[in-house]
Amino acid sequence: MNETLEKRSMGLRASRTISNTIIYVILIVMSVVWLIPFFCIVLQSFRIESTWQVGYVIPRQWGWDNYRALWNSDFKRWYLNTFIIALAVAALQTIIVLCMSYTLSRFRFKMRDGLMRFMLILGMFPGMLTMIILYRVLKDLGLTQANAVPGLILVYVASSGMGYYVSKGFFDTIPKSLDEAARVDGATRAQVLYKIILPLAKPIVIYTILTAFMAPWGDFVFAKYVSFGTSAGMNVAVGMWSWLQQDMIGQKYTMFCAGGVIVAIPVTILFMCLQKYYVEGVTGGAVKG
Amino acid sequence: MASVKLTKVKKVYDNKVVAVHDFDLDIKDKEFIVFVGPSGCGKSTTLRMVAGLEDISGGTVEIDGEVVNDLQPKDRGIAMVFQNYALYPHMTVYDNIAFSLRLQKVPEDVIYEKVTNAAEILGITDYLMRKPRALSGGQRQRVAIGRAMVRNSKVFLMDEPLSNLDAKLRNQMRAEIILLRQKLDTTFIYVTHDQTEAMTLGDRIVIMKDGYIQQVGTPTEVFEMPKNLFVAEFIGAPKMNIMRTELVAEGGKYFVTPFGAKIEVDGEKGKALAAKGQKSAAIDLGVRPEHIVLAKQGEGIPCVLEVNEMMGSELHLHVYTEDGTRLIVRVPTIGLDPAERESLVQGKKLFVTFEGKVMHFFDTESGENLLND
User: Fold this and answer.
1) A183, B72: Cβ pair inside 8 Å?
2) In tens digits, what is the pLDDT along chain B, a chain of 373 residues?
3) Does A196 touch chain B (CB under 8 A)?
4) pLDDT over 70 for what percent of chain B?
5) C-alpha pair distances (Å), A201 with each of A91, A96, A169, B91, B118
6) How far apart are CA A52 and CA A253, in angstroms?
7) Cβ–Cβ of A185/B151 closer than 8 Å?
8) What is the reported pLDDT for B295?
9) What domains sit in chain B, N to C, each tagged with a CATH number?
10) ipTM for the whole complex
11) Could you confirm whether domain A75-282 is CATH 3.40.30.10?
């Protein structure tokens, strides 16, 4: 009796080890495939013997030349633009999304369902459809080309109220009696939001900030046509794209790689610090926080 | 310390469902009022309207003579304890209790004094620096009460505060609430679905059903003089036995004739019936289980024992009569002969009779007590 039990448990252990091994091997292979391009870009950014694309990966001469060249180019301006846009959008969009989610989660008003349905349907149209009309509006407001930064902030923030789904879902899991207790205790609705709900919804707040920061950080299409060829209004993606044109790529390829590394740094740091919350936020709807 | 007056208070939800119908009640200063009723009877809704957590669809709520219909909860001078405690999970017990005082910008040293004082009374001093999740249910409920205590509010509202506790703890907390009430000496409105809680805690009990008040009265009143069948069956455990029978007026005396027996209605009840000039009629007769007594073999109503529940100090005998009506009989074990007690097994033939002084008579149509004013 005992022997068969032991055998069975050994079999269980063995099969678990095998399946774990298989899973790890697959994961390792996937991450290697995933990481190779990044690895190449980092190596290329330190290559100084030629600015051209070459047929090998490991540089023959190493140095900081490409980064120095970045410092002396328009890149500084683009980077600053991108940073300003992303920060402003992260701040404004987070405030709007959280207020919107709180409202939809806690208040019952006429047309609430209608509004939610309307926004759901509106969100199904690709944003690109609005490109031409948005450009006209921004141009009339004088917010294109050299003034593209405020223009882009406006574009990104304008529709942010529609991104309430995840955080509303999370807020819904926080018992309403907490709001009620706080209101009896003397809190206003706003105090309920920032003293009770937001501290409890920390993962989702961080998730919202991160996504709000990321979208404009990597945006190309909108940034491209709003800046419309004026270097002063470009973000990094649009600016660096100009280095990949046929007439430029020969001189700028390694600088492009160095730029790529610099662009990735803040986002990587952000993610490393906040990934715990990010994962909680993504799965937050299912698991009560 | 305040009176609360509800006048024609009504709650209609958006989907036209009426949860509370014209609720009229005068709550005196320092009174302990209990709203009791089955789920969905509107008791919590009424309490929440007093608290300001629910809009009032019609009528007025006055606290201390001031109409508070349009005041925010925080401006009504109330404190509330919730069924699920509603403690702020990210704050320590101390911060939970101090929350309302901090919002009022009370100086920290005063807050410290009040919080420690409340903790002392509730016996939670050792847990002040813990988070709510590290507390047991009973401790959490104490914190919730502490949070309400420090507000020095005029009216103390409690929405089924003991429902989430296990039976033993519930009994203990019930006693503590009585003590707390003596210490706080303020007006209480307490909501529960448990008639025992209502009976033990309330100065007066408001019994509700389907959004209507069925009866308002002291525990003794509602127990001894239930206004209708619903109250009669709701108050008291095990519940009152109800049977359809005849009330016979004969030469100035009254008799009931359940299951072929003829039992005289004597005492106050008989006089009251006579004073009303009650005629013979079909009635619903209500007899509490403790008012049915075992009779000698061959006397009274014959029936068969189905279940014998041993409760310790008493037996609950579930019996059925010849026509199949089920009755519950409550027999104290103290006067019972051990041999007789052992003989009470399933299938045993028993004879029971009713105490004539303490019977209740209800109209078969309306269910109203025939002795209502």
Assistant:
1) yes
2) 689 999 999 999 888 889 999 999 999 999 999 999 999 899 999 999 999 999 999 999 999 999 999 999 988 989 999 988 889 988 999 999 999 999 999 999 999 999 999 999 888 999 899 998 888 888 898 999 999 889 888 899 999 999 888 888 888 889 889 988 888 889 999 999 999 999 999 999 999 999 999 999 999 999 999 999 999 999 988 999 999 999 998 888 899 988 888 888 887 888 888 888 888 899 999 999 999 988 888 888 899 999 999 988 999 999 999 888 899 999 998 888 888 888 888 998 999 988 878 899 999 999 999 988 7
3) yes
4) 100
5) 17, 15, 11, 14, 30
6) 6
7) yes
8) 86
9) 4-233 (3.40.50.300), 239-363 (2.40.50.140)
10) 0.82
11) no
> Which amino acid is it at A24?
Y
* Cβ contact A181–B80 (<8 Å): yes
In sequence order, the 6+-apart residues with CB closer than 8 A to the CB of A250 are A51, A52
Which of B52, B72, B88 has its CB closest to that of A196? B88
Q: What is the pLDDT of residue A281?
A: 56
Nearest alpha-carbon partner for B240 in B133, B358, B121, B67: B358
| Residues on chain B touching A180 (C-beta within 8 angstroms) | 51, 53, 73, 80, 82, 86
Nearest CA in chain B to A191: B103
Strand positions, DSSP E, chain B: 4-12, 18-27, 32-36, 58-63, 66-67, 78-81, 155-159, 187-192, 204-209, 212-217, 241-250, 253-256, 263-265, 281-287, 292-294, 301-310, 314-321, 326-332, 349-354, 360-363
Taking only residues 160 to 179 of chain A, the set having a beta carbon closer than 8 angstroms to any beta carbon of chain B reads: 175, 177-178
In terms of CA atoms, which chain B residue is nearest residue A289? B89
CB contacts of B86 in chain A (<8 Å) are 175, 177-178, 180-181
Give the C-alpha distances (Å, rounded to integers) separating A8 from A14, A20, B371: 10, 18, 76
In Å, how far is B100's CA from the nearest CA of chain A?
Answer: 5
Nearest to A172 by CA among A276, A288, A280, A282: A288
* Beta strands B32-36; B187-192: pairing state: parallel
| Whether A184 and B79 lie within 8 Å, measured CB to CB | yes
Structure tokens at B181: 């009430």
Could you give the CA distance from residue A275 to residue A268 in angstroms, rounded to a whole number?
A: 10
